[in-house]
Amino acid sequence: MIGAFHQGEAALVAPFEHSLRLWGTLFGWMMFGDLSDRWTIMGALVLVTAGLYVLDGERQLARAAT
Asked: What is the pTM of this model?
């Protein structure tokens, strides 16, 4: 991921970094039977919501610029 951030734009690489959290949770459950607690899930939801909010704002700015 460090190399990806070095090579590409953060706006393009960040969604892949967030997907690592999902894969980590899935593999943790499959291999170790470990499930995230409610605080971790709530924190992840905050991150996803904030990302979608920023994405929507960027799309509106791009539409207004054209």
From this structure: 0.64
Helix and strand element counts for the chain (H, E): 3, 0
Which residue has tokens 């909010």?
Answer: 53
The answer to whether 39 touches 3, Cβ cutoff 8 Å, is: no
Residue listed under structure tokens 């904030």: 50
| Two tokens, residue 26 | 């899935």
- What is the C-alpha to C-alpha distance for residues 25 and 34, in angstroms, rounded to an integer? 8
- H helix intervals, 2-37: 2-7, 10-32
- pLDDT tens-digit profile of 17-65? 778 888 888 999 999 999 889 998 899 899 888 888 988 888 898 899 8
- The residue with tokens 């999902």 is 22
pLDDT confidence of residue 27: 93
